[in-house]
Amino acid sequence: MTNSLFNVLVLDGGGSKGIYTLGVLNELELKLGVPLYQHFDLIYGTSTGSIIGSLLALGVEVAEIKKLYIENIPEIMNVRGRKRKSKKLQELGEKVFRKKDFTDFKTDIGIVALNYDTQNPLVFKSNLNQAHGMKHSFIPGFGCTISNAVQSSCSAYPIFAKKQLQTLNQGKINVVDGGYIANNATLFALIDSHKAYKVDKKNIRLLSVGTGNFIEKSMGGLLSLFNKFKLYQFIQKIITSNTNTNVILAKLLYSDIKMVRINNTYNKPEYGTNMLERDMEKLELLFRLGRSSYAQAESEIDNLLQQDKPLI
Question: 0.85 exceeded by the pTM?
Answer without folding.
Answer: yes
